[in-house]
Design a protein that fits this description.
heterodimer; A: 109 residues; mainly beta; five-stranded antiparallel β-sheet; globular; B: 114 residues; six-stranded mixed β-sheet; four-stranded antiparallel β-sheet; 10 strands
């Protein structure tokens, strides 16, 4: 079967750095997405990785290792508004998105 | 421009009743997806429309669920004879062309079956 694993919940301090990990086992791989979802709101796109390495976009960076079936989302200079769930999704060989359950990130002052 | 819109935002229905959920995708987006999200869970794929092609219904959990997309734009998800386990947030997303592009999500419809 296909599986996406993420930690259920993480806590970090305002101004700090946090890394959210995602491991996957899917039938084929055609890219990995990270989405942010605030409570009661729709997911919004954060990043996309299809090749190994680090993609940086402002305070957020996403890393991919296809050989390890592993990605992480790195959030720097954390702000209270970063409190949200972060969803990892992998596009499989049929170009269907397989979603993880999400990591709830709690930011404390 | 306008994003993906969904209606109603909240729906409470009695077990056994039928419900219809509506999605208006972003203009020009030919791909449309329906997902279901239960509390604390990830997104569960339901159905995918791409242009005039036959929809990918592989995620529909039972024959009580159906969806259509009229004129390549608005989509309606219908759940017949609702059950309590159908209670969830139903999210619609649209994207340009194929799954190669990022998806833009609507605000969702929170369905509660009593």
């Amino acid at each position: 079967g296909q599986n996406i694993d993420q930690p259920t919940e993480m806590t970090a301090t305002e101004g700090a750095i946090v890394q959210i990990n995602c491991t996957y086992q899917t039938s084929g791989f055609n890219g990995l997405f990270w989405y942010q979802q605030h409570a009661g709101e729709a997911p919004t796109f954060l990043s996309y990785n299809v090749l190994d390495g680090l993609e940086e976009k402002g305070r957020f960076s996403s890393f991919l290792s296809r050989s390890k079936g592993y990605s992480y989302l790195l959030l720097k200079e954390l702000q209270m508004k970063d409190s949200a769930s972060y969803l990892c999704a992998v596009r499989d060989s049929n170009y269907q998105l397989i979603w993880g359950a999400g990591t709830k990130l709690i930011i404390k002052p | 421009g306008a994003g993906v819109s969904q209606s109603p935002s909240n729906k409470v229905t009695e077990k056994g009743k039928d419900v219809e959920l509506r999605c208006d995708p972003i203009s020009g987006h030919t791909a449309l997806y329906w997902y279901r999200q239960s509390l604390g869970q990830g997104l569960e794929f339901l159905i995918y429309f791409q242009g005039n092609s036959a929809p990918d219904k592989s995620g529909l959990p039972s024959d009580r669920f159906s969806a259509e997309r009229t004129g390549g734009s608005v989509s309606t998800l219908t759940i017949q004879r609702t059950q309590q386990e159908d209670s969830a947030v139903y999210l619609c997303a649209s994207s340009l062309a194929s799954p190669l592009y990022e998806q833009y999500f609507g605000p969702g419809t929170r369905l509660t079956v009593t």
